[in-house]
C-alpha cells in the first residue's frame, strides 16, 4: 500500500469515527426545533392552549437540556471518536477517553494557575470545560483526545504484562500510557494552541469573508467527496468546529455552523440568521436538485423500459426529497457516468453560491418536512424560507435540463436506457435463479433464524475475508482481504442500493436503517462462533 493509500485510509477511518457522535446531533436538533416551535410567542398566540404553564415549562426545560449538548461538544466528541476508532472493547476506549479529558483539563488548569497564566474570567482564549478553566480548544480538544486514545487502544488494549502485573495489562495499560501523555499535552497546548487557534480563526474568517467562493467550494466538495465517505469529515469540520464560525447568542458562545444556527433559531433577539447558516444547506440539492436529476433520468428511459425505470427512480426521488438520503439516486448515475456526478457537484456548489448571493439564511436539516418545521415558525425575515423554496424550484429545473441534455447527448447508459446486466434491476426472477444456483452460499437455509446475516456474510466472502466491520449514516463499511471475493450481485439481494470500493474497504449502501444490516451480520457471526482475526 502506497503512502497516498495509507493517508486516504487513515482519513476514511477518522471520517467513520467522527460520524459516531454526529449521528445523534440531527435528532437532538429536530427535538430542539419542536421545543422552540411550542414555546414560540407567535405560535402560542395562534394556538392558546400551548400557553399552558406546564407545557411551556416542560418544553423550555427540554430545550435548555438539549442545548447543553451543543455547548459541551468537546467531551462528546472525545468519547464518540475514541469509541468509533476502537476496533474492539469499544466501551473501554470511550471510558478511557472521558477520564483522559478530565486529566487534561485538571492538569492544564493547575498549570495555568501555578504559572500565573489563568485569566480572572473566561474569554480571551480561555473557557470552561468539565468545570475547569483551560485554553479554549472547543471541539478540537475532544477530537484530538479521541484520536489519541483510539490509536493507543487499538495497539495496546490486549497488551499482556505477565501474571504478576496482569492487573495493569490490557485496557488498563492503555490508560496508564495516557496519563503522562495527557499531562504533557496539557502543558504543551497551553503554549502551542493559542497560535494554532489564531490560524484556525484566520481560515474561518477567510471562508466566511471570501464571498461566494467559500460557499461554492464547500458545496462542491461536500458532494464530490460522497463516493469516498470523506464528506463526513469536511461537513463535521464546518458544522461543529470553529471553522464554521464562532458566535455569541443570548450570552452563550457557540462554535460551528449548526450549533450557531440552532441557537439563533431559538433566540428571539436574533433578527436574521448568520450567513454561516448557509453551510447547513446541503438539503437544497437533496430535496430539489436530485429530484430534478431523477425526473430527467426517468424521462430519458426507453419507452419499453419506462415501467422498469419508474421502479428505480420514483422511490429514489422520494427517498432524497423526504428523508434526504441521496445514495439511491446518486449511485444510480455515479457508477455509469462519473462525469455526471462531477456536474452534480458543480451545480451544488453554484447553488450554494446563489444562497450567499441572495443572502438566504434558511436553516435546513433532513428532508422537505423538517426544513419547513425548522423555518416557518421562525418567520420569513429571520430565515427567508420562501426564497429558499423558490431557489430550490429553479435548481430542480436546472438539474432536469442539464441532466437530460447530458444523458441524451452522450447516450449515458443509466437504468432504463440499457437493459444489460450492468444496469438491470434485480427482479424476482433473478432472485429465484440466484437461490437455486447459489443457495448454499447466499440464501440461508431453513436451519438458521438469521437469513439476512448469513446472506451478507456469504456475499462479502466469509470470515477469512473480513478484517473489520463498521457503519456510518447509510453504509455498511467492511475492510476485506480480497475485493474479488465480494459478490456484488449477492449483496444486491440483501437490499444493497450500491457498492463503493476504496482500497481494501467496501461500502455497502443500505440507507438510514443500515444498523439493521450490521446487526444481522454481527449476530450471525456471533451465533456461529465466528470471530474476526
Automatic annotation (TrEMBL):
<keyword id="KW-0418">Kinase</keyword>
<dbReference type="InterPro" id="IPR050429">
    <property type="entry name" value="PTS_Glucose_EIICBA"/>
</dbReference>
<feature type="transmembrane region" description="Helical">
    <location>
        <begin position="199"/>
        <end position="221"/>
    </location>
</feature>
<keyword id="KW-0808">Transferase</keyword>
<feature type="transmembrane region" description="Helical">
    <location>
        <begin position="385"/>
        <end position="407"/>
    </location>
</feature>
<feature type="active site" description="Phosphocysteine intermediate; for EIIB activity">
    <location>
        <position position="472"/>
    </location>
</feature>
<keyword id="KW-1133">Transmembrane helix</keyword>
<keyword id="KW-0598">Phosphotransferase system</keyword>
<dbReference type="InterPro" id="IPR001996">
    <property type="entry name" value="PTS_IIB_1"/>
</dbReference>
<feature type="transmembrane region" description="Helical">
    <location>
        <begin position="173"/>
        <end position="193"/>
    </location>
</feature>
<dbReference type="Pfam" id="PF00367">
    <property type="entry name" value="PTS_EIIB"/>
</dbReference>
<feature type="transmembrane region" description="Helical">
    <location>
        <begin position="93"/>
        <end position="114"/>
    </location>
</feature>
<feature type="domain" description="PTS EIIB type-1">
    <location>
        <begin position="450"/>
        <end position="531"/>
    </location>
</feature>
<keyword id="KW-0812">Transmembrane</keyword>
<keyword id="KW-0813">Transport</keyword>
<keyword id="KW-0472">Membrane</keyword>
<keyword id="KW-0762">Sugar transport</keyword>
<dbReference type="InterPro" id="IPR013013">
    <property type="entry name" value="PTS_EIIC_1"/>
</dbReference>
<protein>
    <submittedName>
        <fullName>PTS system, glucose-like IIB component</fullName>
        <ecNumber>2.7.1.69</ecNumber>
    </submittedName>
</protein>
<dbReference type="GO" id="GO:0016301">
    <property type="term" value="F:kinase activity"/>
</dbReference>
<dbReference type="InterPro" id="IPR018113">
    <property type="entry name" value="PTrfase_EIIB_Cys"/>
</dbReference>
<feature type="transmembrane region" description="Helical">
    <location>
        <begin position="134"/>
        <end position="152"/>
    </location>
</feature>
<dbReference type="InterPro" id="IPR036878">
    <property type="entry name" value="Glu_permease_IIB"/>
</dbReference>
<dbReference type="GO" id="GO:0009401">
    <property type="term" value="P:phosphoenolpyruvate-dependent sugar phosphotransferase system"/>
</dbReference>
<dbReference type="GO" id="GO:0090563">
    <property type="term" value="F:protein-phosphocysteine-sugar phosphotransferase activity"/>
</dbReference>
<dbReference type="InterPro" id="IPR003352">
    <property type="entry name" value="PTS_EIIC"/>
</dbReference>
<feature type="transmembrane region" description="Helical">
    <location>
        <begin position="312"/>
        <end position="343"/>
    </location>
</feature>
<dbReference type="GO" id="GO:0005886">
    <property type="term" value="C:plasma membrane"/>
</dbReference>
<feature type="transmembrane region" description="Helical">
    <location>
        <begin position="69"/>
        <end position="86"/>
    </location>
</feature>
<keyword id="KW-1003">Cell membrane</keyword>
<feature type="domain" description="PTS EIIC type-1">
    <location>
        <begin position="5"/>
        <end position="419"/>
    </location>
</feature>
<dbReference type="GO" id="GO:0008982">
    <property type="term" value="F:protein-N(PI)-phosphohistidine-sugar phosphotransferase activity"/>
</dbReference>
<feature type="transmembrane region" description="Helical">
    <location>
        <begin position="21"/>
        <end position="49"/>
    </location>
</feature>
<dbReference type="Pfam" id="PF02378">
    <property type="entry name" value="PTS_EIIC"/>
</dbReference>
Amino acid at each position: 500500500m502506497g503512502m497516498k493509500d495509507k493517508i486516504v485510509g487513515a482519513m476514511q477511518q477518522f471520517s467513520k469515527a467522527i460520524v459516531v457522535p454526529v449521528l445523534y446531533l440531527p435528532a437532538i436538533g429536530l427535538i430542539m426545533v419542536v421545543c422552540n416551535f411550542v414555546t414560540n410567542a407567535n405560535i402560542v398566540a395562534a394556538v392558546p392552549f400551548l400557553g399552558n404553564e406546564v407545557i411551556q415549562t416542560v418544553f423550555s426545560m427540554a430545550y435548555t437540556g438539549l442545548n447543553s449538548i451543543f455547548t459541551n461538544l468537546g467531551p462528546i466528541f472525545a468519547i464518540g471518536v475514541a469509541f468509533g476508532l476502537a476496533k474492539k472493547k469499544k466501551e473501554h476506549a470511550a471510558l478511557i477517553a472521558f477520564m483522559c479529558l478530565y486529566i487534561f483539563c485538571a492538569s492544564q488548569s493547575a498549570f495555568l494557575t501555578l504559572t500565573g497564566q489563568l485569566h480572572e474570567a473566561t474569554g480571551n482564549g480561555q473557557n470552561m470545560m468539565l468545570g475547569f478553566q483551560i485554553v479554549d480548544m472547543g471541539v478540537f480538544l475532544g477530537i484530538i483526545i479521541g484520536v489519541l486514545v483510539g490509536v493507543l487502544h487499538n495497539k495496546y488494549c490486549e497488551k499482556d504484562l505477565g501474571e504478576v502485573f496482569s492487573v495493569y495489562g490490557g485496557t488498563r495499560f492503555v490508560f496508564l500510557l495516557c496519563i503522562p501523555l495527557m499531562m504533557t499535552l496539557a502543558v504543551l497546548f497551553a503554549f502551542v494552541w493559542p497560535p494554532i487557534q489564531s490560524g484556525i480563526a484566520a481560515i474561518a474568517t477567510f471562508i466566511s469573508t471570501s464571498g461566494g467562493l467559500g460557499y461554492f467550494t464547500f458545496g462542491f466538495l461536500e458532494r464530490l467527496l460522497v463516493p469516498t465517505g470523506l464528506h463526513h469529515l469536511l461537513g463535521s469540520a464546518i458544522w461543529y468546529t470553529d471553522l464554521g464560525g464562532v458566535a455569541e447568542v443570548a450570552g452563550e458562545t457557540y462554535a460551528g455552523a449548526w450549533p450557531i444556527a440552532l441557537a439563533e433559531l431559538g433566540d428571539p433577539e436574533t433578527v436574521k440568521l448568520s450567513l454561516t447558516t448557509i453551510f447547513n444547506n446541503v438539503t437544497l440539492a437533496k430535496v430539489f436538485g436530485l429530484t430534478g436529476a431523477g425526473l430527467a433520468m426517468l424521462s430519458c428511459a426507453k419507452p419499453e423500459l419506462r415501467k422498469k425505470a419508474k421502479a428505480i427512480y420514483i422511490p429514489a426521488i422520494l427517498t432524497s426529497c423526504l428523508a434526504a438520503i441521496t445514495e439511491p439516486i446518486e449511485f444510480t448515475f455515479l457508477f455509469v457516468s462519473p462525469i455526471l456526478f462531477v456536474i452534480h457537484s458543480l451545480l451544488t456548489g453554484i447553488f450554494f453560491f446563489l444562497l450567499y448571493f441572495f443572502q438566504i439564511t434558511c436553516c435546513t436539516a433532513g428532508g422537505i418536512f423538517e426544513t419547513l418545521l425548522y423555518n416557518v415558525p421562525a418567520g420569513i425575515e429571520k430565515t427567508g424560507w420562501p426564497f429558499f423554496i423558490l431557489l430550490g424550484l429553479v435548481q430542480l429545473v436546472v438539474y432536469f435540463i442539464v441532466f437530460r441534455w447530458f444523458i441524451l447527448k452522450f447516450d449515458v447508459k443509466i437504468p432504463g436506457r440499457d437493459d444489460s446486466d450492468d444496469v438491470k434491476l434485480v427482479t424476482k426472477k433473478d432472485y429465484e435463479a440466484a437461490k437455486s444456483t447459489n443457495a448454499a452460499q447466499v440464501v440461508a437455509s431453513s436451519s438458521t433464524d438469521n437469513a439476512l446475516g448469513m446472506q451478507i456474510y456469504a456475499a462479502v466472502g466469509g470470515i477469512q475475508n473480513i478484517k473489520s466491520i463498521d457503519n456510518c449514516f447509510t453504509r455498511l463499511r467492511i475492510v476485506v482481504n480480497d475485493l474479488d471475493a465480494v459478490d456484488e450481485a449477492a449483496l444486491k439481494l440483501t437490499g444493497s442500493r450500491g457498492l463503493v470500493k476504496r482500497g481494501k474497504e467496501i461500502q455497502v449502501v443500505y440507507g438510514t436503517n443500515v444498523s439493521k444490516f450490521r446487526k444481522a451480520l454481527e449476530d450471525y457471526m456471533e451465533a456461529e462462533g465466528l470471530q474476526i482475526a
